[in-house]
Amino acid sequence: MNIKNRIKMLAVSRGMTLKKLAEKLSEITQEKYSYNSLLGKLNRESLSLKEAFIIAEILNYQLNFIDLNK
Predict the structure, then answer these.
(1) Is residue 27 part of a domain?
(2) Least CB-packed of 7, 39, 44, 68 within 10 Å?
């Protein structure tokens, strides 16, 4: 599953649209995010790690790095 579909699925599971997610992202970062700019980043798979962590926080999820050598 690509990042766009995964984030859309997680947002829907929280009752949130990508438009609302973009608004929340703008509020938290003080940067301008619109539905189109967020969708563009998801389509291009150019979301930064910082943005991914913030989106996870907005959706009440946590991103973790798991050591695969264990």
Answers:
(1) yes
(2) 68
The parent domain of residue 48 ranges over 3-58
Q: How far apart are CA 44 and CA 61, in angstroms?
A: 23
Q: Nearest Cα to 54, choosing from 43, 63, 65? A: 63
Report the domain count for the chain: 1
User: Within a domain: residue 48?
Assistant: yes
- Quick: pLDDT tens for 12-55: 999 999 999 999 999 999 999 999 999 999 999 999 999 999 99
Contacts of 61 (CB under 8 A, 6+ apart): 10
pLDDT at 44: 96
Q: Which two tokens stand for residue 61?
A: 């999820």
pLDDT at 70: 86
